[in-house]
Amino acid sequence: MSAATDATAIGLGRRTIAVMVLIPVVVTLALCAFAWPAARTAPRDLPLGVAGPAAATAAVEQGLARHEGAFEVHRYEDAAAARAAVEDRDVYGAVVVTPRGTELLTASAASPVVAGLLREAVSAQAPAGTTVPVTDVVAAPAGDPRGAVLASTLLPLTLAGAAAGVITTLLGLRGGRAVATLSGAAMLAGLVGATLADTWLGALNGNWWAEAGILGLTVLAIGATFAGLAALLGKPGLGVGALLMVLIGNPFSGVSSAPELLPTAVGTLGQWLPPGAGGSALRSVSSFGGAAAGGPLLVLALWAAAGLTATLLGARRRRAVPETAPVQAPVPVPVSAG
User: Fold this and answer.
1) Any residues with CB less than 8 A from the CB of 118 and at least 6 apart, and which?
2) Burial 32-58 (b: 16+ CB within 10 A, else e)
C-alpha cells in the first residue's frame, strides 16, 4: 500500500470518528436546550397586579409571598387601573379585592399557561367553599384558544430564516444581491405566514399587515444573521447561526408558555434573540393592539441590521483580497542577438 493511500485512509478514518462523536454531542445539546427549560417551568418574578384598599389586599399579598420569588406584585388603586395594566401587558393578570369579594383578571392571549396558573394560585387562597370569579380581559383568539398554533409557528419561522441565509450563502450571493435576496424572501415569508396563521387558521386576530411585517422581520433577522456570520467566518458561521437561532433561540423563546416561566437567565436570553422577540411582538400586535411591542421590535431590527451589515462587509472584504495581493514583477524575455 502506497504512502498516499495510507494518508487517504487515515484522513477518512479521522472524519468518520469526528462524525461519530459530533452527532451525539449535537443530540445532547439539542435535548438539553429543549428539554431542560421545559422540565424547569415555574413562575419566576411573574408580573401580577393586586388592586384594592391596602387593608383588604394585605392577605392576598401575604399569600402570594409564600411562593418565594414566584410573583412580582404591582399594586393598583382599583379594578379599572388593574384592567388597564393587563391590557397594556404590564402584568399577566390581577387580583382585585372589593367589598363583594375577590376577582381575578387574566389575559389568556398573553399566555394561556400563565392564565391557568393564576387561576390555580388564586383559587387555592380562597376560603373553602367559595369560588373566585375569573374575567379573561384579553382572550386568546378563537382559532387558537390554547396558544398552540402561535407556538407552532415559531419553528417554521426559524427554519425559513435559516434556509434563506444558508441558500443565499451556498449560491454565492454577496453584497447588495444577498441583501435583496434576504429581504425579498423575508417579505414573502411574512405575507404567506400571515395568510396562513390569520386568514386561514384564525390564530391571529390583529392588524393583518402588522402581523405580516413582524413575521417577515423575524425571518429577516434570522436569515441575515446566518448570511452575515457566513460572510465573516465562512461556512463555520452557518453552524454558529444554527446554534444561536435553532438550538438556543427557539427553545429559549418562551412562546409556548412565557419567558417568566423559564429559568431566569434562559428567559432573558431568549427575549434578546430573534425567535423570542418575534413571538413576543406577534402576541402584542395580534391581541393587544401593539402594546409592549417596542422592545421586541427593536431587538429584531438590531439583529437584522447587524446581519445585513455583516453581509455587506464580508463581500467587500473578499473583493479587497485580490487588490492587496502582492504583485509579481514581470519575467524579462531574453532577446536574441542578431
Assistant:
1) 48, 92, 93, 104, 106
2) ebeeebeeebebbebbbbbbbeeeebe
CA proximity to 311, closest of 188, 190, 166: 166
Distance CA 115, CA 123 (A): 12
pLDDT in tens, 286-313: 999 999 999 999 999 999 999 999 999 9
What is the tens place of the pLDDT at every residue in 48-67? 999 999 888 998 899 888 88
Residues 6+ apart with CB under 8 A from 126: 102, 132
The whole-number pLDDT of residue 180 equals: 96
Q: How far apart are CA 80 and CA 149, in angstroms?
A: 31
Q: What is the pTM of this model?
A: 0.86
Chain position carrying cell 376560603: 127
**323 vs 11: CA distance, rounded Å:** 35
**Is the predicted pLDDT of residue 338 greater than 50, yes or no?**
no
Tell me what pLDDT residue 337 has.
47
How much is the pLDDT for 333? 55
By CB atoms closer than 10 A (0-12, 13-18, 19+), residue 94 is buried
* Residues 250-266 pLDDT 10s: 999 999 999 999 998 99
CA atoms of 280 and 278, how far apart (whole Å) = 6
Read off the C-alpha cell for 51: 388592586
For residue 296, the tally of other CB atoms under 10 A from its CB is 25
d(CA 265, CA 276): 13
Tell me the pLDDT band of 158, cut-offs 50, 70 and 90: very high
Q: What is the CA radius of gyration of the chain?
A: 27
